[in-house]
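[job 0412] stage=complex_fold ligand=pyridoxal-5'-phosphate status=START
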Amino acid sequence: MTLGSEAFISKIPVLKPRLPNLESISSYIERIDLSGSYSNNGPLVRELESRYAGILGVEPQKVIAVSNATLGITLAVQNQTPNLWRVPDFTFGATALAVLNAGKQLMLEDVDEKTWDLQLPSQFTEENVGHLVVMPFGNNSSFSKWKTISNVVFDAAASIGDPSWDLGKLTHTHTVVFSLHATKVFGAGEGGLIVCGNPLNADLIRCSINFGFNSARHISTLGTNAKMSEYSAAIALASLDQKNIEISEWETSQQLARNLASQVGHRNPNLEASPVNPYFLLRFKDENSLINFENSSTQVNIETRRWWPLAIHEMPFFSEQPRLSITHKLDKKSVSVALSSTILGLPMSRDLSNEFFRRITPLFERFESTFHIFEEVG
Ligand SMILES: Cc1ncc(COP(=O)(O)O)c(C=O)c1O
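[job 0412] stage=complex_fold status=DONE, emitting structure tokens
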């Protein structure tokens, strides 16, 4: 492939969301028309919560549908007692913003080299600290290690597709938040789900998403508007109707991607996560290798994206906030800084084309020696 020919080949996008079409949502829209209920905990939202409760193995009362995961994480953090929250320095910006918007204090910490997520608190960590654990790129393999730790909110934004979820025994002080954004599995355009270990906490959050109204419509807690509308619920329900087809499409695309990575012996936590996730990530030895691969992908018209291109503490907005307490185990050698500059997202979709593999395979062969060597979790 030469530079000159790139204009003649179509671009392969890094993301290609596909949500339920008109035909599959129409029966739900008819139900909205008939019920005349458009928002405020309407019948479709309640049905969605109850269907997800069945899938996740919890009582419906513990599942709250919300307008997006960012507000879901914000309210989960706001409604737990700790004031200070440990947040991974390697994450999507919304995670850190959620703590600030909840009016709490942010304590950025480095992540684990092998799992890319927050480490368990050390013996010196104060008792009353919250842990905002991000499950990076659909990987929830570290979920169980938090079982005995109090006050954990899991940002599981991209992890709803994992068929192994069983939240029936979720610890009382734990909350899990999923995103139903268009780019995620079982997308609804915008949307999110909060699952609480404690039903009383769920009641509080349910009140917070509706301005904090009590039964007399007085503000009784610091609330906002984070309600999911009936229209979003319609799309989310139609997505669930096609759940099995969607799962098998992600599995097929991910299997092809993983076969390619394994041909060059490349491993990383994303490639080992549940295959029902919308990412295909590569990690390079260093940033220059990543840039070379990025440029070569552009030449063959394959779009790539640096997922989480800066560690949170490197973003001027966060580093310049005097009110933030940022722990600085975060020097230049921090894992978060290294990950942000060496992880590249390749196209991933429910129908990854043969054409994509035809174009990308030679790049894998050419850049094989520049991929990061994954060490066994031990
Ligand atoms: C780790 C993480 N947290 C939070 C979010 C925000 O989710 P939403 O778009 O539903 O607010 C995302 C979105 O991609 C994410 O990747």
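The radius of gyration is 21 Å.
[job 0412] exit 0
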